Every structure is written in C-alpha cells, then in structure tokens.
Amino acid sequence: TPSLVAFLQQELRAAGRALGPCPESPRAPLAREALRVQEQSEQLARELREVSGNRASLRGRLRDLRQYLHVLREGQRFTSLPAPPGSPPRPRASSEREPILDPSLHRHLDRKINFVAGVIHPWRVSAFERLLWRACRGYLVASFVEMPEPMEDPATGESVTWVIFLISYWGEQIGQKIRKISDCFHCHVYPYPESEASRVDTMSGLHSQIQDLSVVLEETEQYLAQVLDKVVVVLPTWRVQVQKMKAIYLVLNQCSFDVTEKCLIAEVWCPVRDLTQVQDALRQGSYTSGSSVECFVQRVPTSESPPTLIRTNKFTAGFQSIVDAYGVASYQEVNPAPYAIITFPFIFAIMFGDVGHGLLMFLFALWMVLYENSPSLRQASNEIWQTFFEGRYLILLMGAFSIYTGFIYNECFSKATVIFPSAWSVATMANHSSWSSDYLATHPLLTLDPNVTGVFRGPYPFGIDPIWSLATNHLNFLNSFKMKMSVVLGIVHMGFGVVLGAFNHVHFHQRHRLVLELLPELVFLLALFGYLVFLIFYKWVKFSAADSLVAPSILIHFIDMFLFTSNAGNLPLYRGQVPVQMVLVVLALASVPILLLGTPLYVWCRRGTGHPTVRGHTVGGRGSHHRGGLTAGVVPKPVATGDQEPLLEGQEDGNSVNATKEDVESGGHSRDAEHKDFAEVFMHQAIHTIEFCLGCVSNTASYLRLWALSLAHAR
Amino acid sequence: LVLFSVFWGLVGIAAPWFVPKGPNRGVIITMLITTAVCCYLFWLIAILAQANPLFGPQLKNETIWYVRFLWE
C-alpha cells in the first residue's frame, strides 16, 4: 500500500496538482479498515493507469493521422498536374516550388508511376537521400519538404519538425528496395493514393477522423481530471493512515512470539507512574478490536539498569536536547537542564549584549512562537529553517537576556544611550584645569581625572557610563571590566555545578562521597579561584582614584601566589596577604590527593569489613558528578506485556514476581570480582580528579571568551 | 543601589510563591530564581567595577567641547 500511495502522489504531481496538507490527524485504522484502504487505493490506481494508457494511445493515433494528412497535403504539391501550356498558372496555396515532375515524364505514362510517401526525422534526411540515390541508381525522384508544424516524436517525446518525403519510382523491385530502406531509417510510411480524386477523398476522410479523435481525447482528459480530483480528496488522509499502519507493524515486529505461537510478547521499559495508563490503553485496545482475550501487563525482575527518561514539554525540549548533547545523564542523576534554560541564554547574552540586536532577535523568536501552530511553519522543508524553528524558545530567551545585558553594556546597535545623566562631569574638569578653547585646540587628547572632586559623581546606576563610548581609552576600562566579569561569573557557574553534583551523592545514599569528593572539590575551587574572585571584589571596593598610582595588580598577585614569590613593586591588597595566600595554596594542593584517593580507599576499607550496603557509583560520562536526578522523578521498571489466555496469572502490579527497588538498581554492579572492582573504582576516581583540576583551570580561562566575544560584537 | 537589590530580591524570593500550580511549577520557579541571581550578579559587577575608577576617560578635544556645551 505505501507504494500505491506513492504512485498516486506521483501521478498527481505529474498532472500538476498540489497536494494539500492533511487537515486533521486521523486515528490509526483497524485491520479491516486497512484492507478497505488498500482496496480503494488499488482501484484508484488501476483506473488511473487505464485512463492514462488510453489517453496515450489516443494521442498516438491522433499524431499518426495528422502526419498522414500533412503528407498528403504536401505530396499534393508535387504530384498535381501542371497547367497545360498556355493557360494561366493555377494559383497554388502556399508553395513556390515548381512541380518536380516535369510534363515530359507524363509521356512515359506507359510505365506506371508508384509513390512512396512518409515522414522522416530531419537529421536523417541527407543520409536517406544519398542511400536512395546509390541504391536505385536514379530510377526514382525523391522530394523532401518540411512539415509546417512540429510534432511530437513518439520515441523521445520532444517536439521535432518532421520532413515529408515523396518518392516516385517505377518498377516493382525498386519499390521494394525503397520500402526496405525507409524501414531502416525508421520512417513512417503512408499509402499514397494514385489519383488526385482519391487523394482528396482520403484527405477528407482523415479530417473527419481527426475531429472525432480530438473529441474523444478531450473527454478522456476530462475523465482523467475527475479521477485525479477524487484522489486529491482522499490521498492526504490515506498517507497519514498508511504511515501509522507502518509504524504499528514496526512495533509489532519487535515483539517476540510466545511458546504457544498464539500471542505476542513485548518486553518494555515502562515508568511506574505510567503503569496504570499502559494498562488502561491495553484494555481499551482489546475492547475496540473486539477480541475475546485481554492483554495484560506483568512485571519482570531484571538486573539491567534502566534507561533514563526525562519528560519535557515543548518549551523545555529544546534545552534538554542541548544538555543531552554533552551526554545523557544516567538513571536517576540530577538533570542540569532546568538551570541551563536560563544560564545558557544568559551566557550567550553576555557575549551578545546589544539592546537593538537583542530586540530584533526577541521579536523574531516571538513571531515564531506565536505562530508555531501554523502548518506552513511547521512543515517547511528547509533544513536551516527547521533548526531555527526548533530552537525558537531558546532564541526567545537569548533575545530577552541580550536586551538586558545590552542595557548594562549600554549598547544599542553599538551606540551608547544616555538614560541617566552621565556620572562624569566634563565641565568641572574643564573648569578645574582651565581648559579654554585654545587649550583644547592645542591638546588633541585630554583625560578626566577622577581625583579632582566633582569630576566623578558616583557610579552610573545602571550599566556602563555612556561617556566611555566617547572616550578613546574606553577599551582599557572595558577590558578590565569584562575580564573580571567573565572570571567572576565563570567561577560562580562552576561552583554551582559542583554543588549540583552534591545532590547526586545525597540521592544515591553515598554520604561518604559528600565528604571525600564534594569537600575537596569545593576547597580546590574556592581556595584558588574563589580567592581570585574575592580579590577582584575587594579591589573594586577598596581602591579608588586617590591611590590609583599604587593600586596593586591582581594578576601579578595571583601569579606570585602560585610561585610563592613576591614582587616588591606590587603592594599587598590587605594586611597579611602573603601568609593567607600561602595557606590557601597549600590547602588547595592538599585537597587534590584527597580527591584522588579518598573514595577508593573508603570503598576498599568498607569492603574489607564485608558491609553489604556498599554501592558502586554509576559510571557516567564526563562530569557525571555535575548532574543529578532532580526532575527525572520516574522510576522505570521492566514489564512484560502479553496477550494470553486468562488462565495464566495475569495480575496487576504489586502481586507478581517483583524485585525490590534496591535489587533492580544495584543489579548492574556485581560484587563478585573485588579486586577488579577496586581497580575500576580507583581508575575512575583518578580520571575524575585529573579532569576536575584541569577542568577548573581551563574552564576559568575559557570563560574569558565571554570577554572576547563581547568585544568582538561591539566592534 | 538598594533599589536594584530589592528588586531582584523580590523577583528571586517572593515571586516563586506566586507561580500557579501546574506541571511546570518546578521549572518556572527554577527559572525565576536563576534569572534573578544571574541578572543581579551581572548588574552588581557592572556597578562595582565603576564605583571607584582608577582612571578616567580620555576624550578628544572636539568631544570635550561638544559635550561641555551640550550635556551641561
């Protein structure tokens, strides 16, 4: 049936009809309905084929007849007797050529003149002529003329201007030779009547035949149109129905047969929450299909770990797919997607920050969201458009945040807007340094000095002061601002991720990991980079223009901290800075081995005492500690559905052979090979440690891209 | 300064109580809190960075002349 449907569609397209979209979605047809659909489609297809065949043959006949007509008409010109000498020449219809047959030939009327007339493809004319001449040695007269209108070539279907030829010869053998030659050249030969009267008769006969045929052809075309109309009405629904049927068969094929070969058994993973729904659906299905036996659901214990199911609606689906691209979270781990809904667009907006562009983006996404149910948008065939459309909520949020960050960056189409009055007073500076017009003329660049009172009137309340966009050294300020901002936000983000991993530990009842992993991770992160953030804020708050000459450089301090050196020219930020930094570095370095060895040792010790509650952790992908099972509140359990006699114990959930939740979950981790397990745990931990430390360092640096891209955007 | 802190604090702490109950309640609350935290932090950084500037803007002389007579 799918092939039939495809055939119908093809025919429709060939006839130039558009296939409208299916208005409502029909439900999957039952088995007998499927048969009906199949019958109907077969019938329609057959009709269509018949009618098209008829039409094709009619057309062919029409073409032949018209060719014959032309042949006769043109041939007329050659063979019509010339006027007797002396009488005025008879007016001819169109030709200017002289009759090829000169009157002298008529004196040889004792020999019978025969004619062969036909049409030939224009490319073959010269070869034909030559061959005729050579073969018949001049005992014939051949004349060629083009047809007045082009006609379809039956073989190739293209429009060709045929050439009519008329060969007059005498002698039977020559006649046979000519006929053979014309056969070779694929010419259409038509009988050419001798006398003029019979020619005229034939022509009129042909005329009437052509007319009749045209009428018949018209009616055939009309009928064809009707059939196509019928198809157009029914086809969209059928298409969807056929697809649904195919899908059902696909699923059924995956079931396996019971021992008694009478029913199908399907083993599925089903969320516990949906179990009643599944039972209802099965019951309804058996009822509507009118079968006498019921389908039922039975739980089956298994040692495999269940797959992860995360329920999303149309809004969250886009974000979940982005998060899944990094690796799907293992069963019951924390799902970072809800946070990513906001953080991802926000970080994008930091790089994009422009009110005008953000507004455009927001409006574009809004349009897509408001019209998301229009079928023309949904079924577009353009791939790039589909990508945008799928991410419309993402783009909406990105646009919204970009507007916000644009306000803070004070950029609207890369121009600053003055919402509040600027905090820098040029007049005060000018008055203070007595910048007269001549002074201005001689000095191309002058700096506003914040040390002078009144020049700087406090921080701009919302965002970056617009005066910076006029300044030539605005990059100096902006670079410093954006780099620090990137680092601060990056550390906060990473810290949050680490904490999120804590949820994992609590959920899986692995409290030891809280101490042995979360704590070292946090210490490492905060001691080094958290301290950096602290320095940034401290410097912002404590140092002002008054001591700008001696303001310490955070960067140099940070580097010195690691190298355990100090720079004389770089004053400490606060009293006792050097010892504090040393302590922090030592702490951080100490936390690394704890991270590395803590959990494996703990696991080893525990197993040494034979405690049964020890669990291995799920071997997740990269950064598995940074995920947790927040919204994945489902507890998938394996169930088997079968269509069986009611004799068997087909009970609902709770009674049948049920494994406990614990067994199901920890089934995947066998406890037999102890040494193997320990090595695996240790290896995993080592990898995790290295990954974490290096990740901290490199990710911090990578947040600087926030700075880089925002810079690039402004340019 | 205080105004903005209060504003974002409202969004982050008070608004979650007003979210209507539905299947998406958790997601919406998460979104609100995350938004509040992110935006507030961003604004805070912007304003702190400018609170005590170590140097001032360097303007061209034409700009100075123009600004002086237009903005003030």
UniProtKB/TrEMBL annotation, chain A:
GO cellular component term, pick one: plasma membrane
Domain of life of the source: Eukaryota
Protein name: V-type proton ATPase subunit a
Family note: Belongs to the V-ATPase 116 kDa subunit family.
GO biological process: vacuolar acidification
UniProt main location, coarse: membrane
Biased composition range(s): Pro residues: 82-91
Species of the source: Nyctibius bracteatus (Rufous potoo)
Residue ranges, compositional bias (Basic and acidic residues): 660-671
Membrane topology designation: Multi-pass membrane protein
TrEMBL record, chain B:
Entry membrane topology: Multi-pass membrane protein
Protein location: Membrane
Record field: transmembrane: 26-49
Keywords, comma-separated and alphabetical: Hydrogen ion transport, Ion transport, Membrane, Transmembrane, Transmembrane helix, Transport
InterPro entries named among the record's database cross-references: ATPase_V0-cplx_e1/e2_su, ATPase_V0-cplx_e1/e2_su_met
Any Pfam family the entry gives: ATP_synt_H
PANTHER family named among the record's database cross-references: V-TYPE PROTON ATPASE SUBUNIT E 2 (PTHR12263:SF2), VACUOLAR ATP SYNTHASE SUBUNIT H (PTHR12263)
Family, similarity comment: Belongs to the V-ATPase e1/e2 subunit family.
Protein name, as recorded: VA0E2 ATPase
Organism: Nyctibius bracteatus
Protein's gene: Atp6v0e2
